[in-house]
Amino acid sequence: MKSKRVKIISLLLLLGFSGALYIGCNLRSSSYQEIDYVIGVSQANMREPWRLVLMNELNEEISKHSNIRLITTDATSNSEKQKKDVKKLLDYGIDLLIVSPSDVKEMTPVISEVYDQIPVIVMDKAVEGFDYTLFIGPDNKLIGRQAGEDIIKHLGKDKGAILELCGSQLSQASKDKSSGFESIISKYPNVHIKRVRVESELRDEAEDMVLSMGEQLKDIDIIFAHNDYMALGAYNAINKLGYDIKIVGIDGFNGENDGINLVKQGKIDATIACSTGGKEAIQYAVDILNKVSGVPKQVILRCHSVNQKNVTAYVENQNKPRNEYKEIIDVGYSQLGSESAWRLANTRSIKEAAKDLGINLIYEDADQSQEKQIAAIRKFIDMKVDVIVISPVVDNGWNEILQEAKDAGIPVLLSDRKVEVEDDSLYSTYIGADFIEEGRRAMRWIKENVPAEEEAVNILEIQGTLEASPTVERKQGFEEILNNNSGYEIVYSKGGDYTYAGGKEVIEEYMKTHEWDIDAIFAHNDDMALGAIKALEAYEIEPGKDVKIVSVDGTRKAFEAMIEGKLNCVVECSPLLGPQLMKAIQDLMDGKELPLRIITDEKIYTQDEAKDVLSSRKY
Ligand code: GYE
Q: Do residues 454 and 486 lie in contact, with contact meaning Cβ atoms separated by under 8 Å?
């Protein structure tokens, strides 16, 4: 294998022949230093201004690592070129690829091939499937919703007209921003949206577009632009035409003509400020290359509504000095209970990680009671802990107590389960699984393994604790796939509280009132599946054969049941959140902003592989 230095020299030689590659800014100073890793960055284009901001962030962060080099290619928005760029980078022996795909569909197979060989971080646009190491990007629907809520506030009334300047027709990000935006505005029947597309997404085309509207602008109350460059174009146009129309943009970058300055100068009224994720990409790349455990699968970036009232505070906060080093961090942790093997492993993981890092964990078990959780949080607030962590038993009813914590200046992290709150800034981050995808995976397995023939496939669903986020979302993902496939029907669905006894009872109840006519069972966790198996056996129904069973979690007991042929498929949901949670707490205490969501890496397992995998299961 070529040494890294040789690799770099061959890259430099290549540079002599083509101008297509850029070496990160830390190369020059590095000629005499040992190079441990080379990271390839395949950029979709260098035309869109925000990509230059992203490149600056990547370069700035990489300059902190003298042993790592960055090589960048520019695909000039051409997928064929991007495919070649990626191949070139691979040929030159990069150790990790960061790719921002120009066209997601075109690039997905290529990314998946690279992922077979080296780690891949996908940025900005999510690719189909999970053949990558890590995705870092924004939640564009959420950004659209946030913009919708802000615009309603700026409008100050429940009627009016909005001019929406959308991006390119090819841009999924723009589609998502629009659909999130519409989901809010459609609640106001007297607020109308006029949508126009600015194909280049650049300032001057936006300006021309708005100028060409002339008189029509009379009826517009507010302009919503999908980026700040278009917002500035809109400002230039209305300024020339002499109209006074409010403008809201997206991005909130810090450059001279970027969103934050535009808000400060009063050229636009507000922007939704989102990081490009460049800094995070390098930080995670370093962790991946150094084989640090607990790297998530997806990191969803946080965005902020910045307007003329809060822009000064926002900038101050961004530039605030790092927190003083605190020797021992006090963390109040409200765990929801001890209902399942998953939960016990989760508690163990969190306690061990805290101990390993010298974090003082004050642990409270709420025994499935939201009231007890609220009381525990109040106690933590009184104790003036540094951070509060909650695994919320249900998703609703948290607004008030989270506001109390916020007012006391104590950040709250959500571990494992989510909350439905009016204001996302009530918590710092969510660390846990993608429950919707787990539900989809379960139904995909049923679709492939229990074919629908003349008669419909009857499915019995054993839900977890009702109104808990994994229950709601697993059901949602499962039904999403089910509804797209005819011949499958959920004929019975009951909650089993995520316990062994609960799963057993659901089957017993069903047997009391029905003739057995079930083809497949979807249990929202392993414990309930195991309880159901016990009940089925008592009725002489052979689990795994007479009825196919799929469940979620991936505990050792579930693997044993698969080996015995009683359980057919397990969708993994990792409870080992301790290391990631503690890392997030340390980052937060260091003054870093956490992403909105940190999503864990998970797989699906079937009977064939159960035996091989059992010994390596950690819970
Ligand atoms: O699947 C189940 C547990 O919230 C993801 O809760 C967690 C779920 C897990 O009791 O076993």
A: no
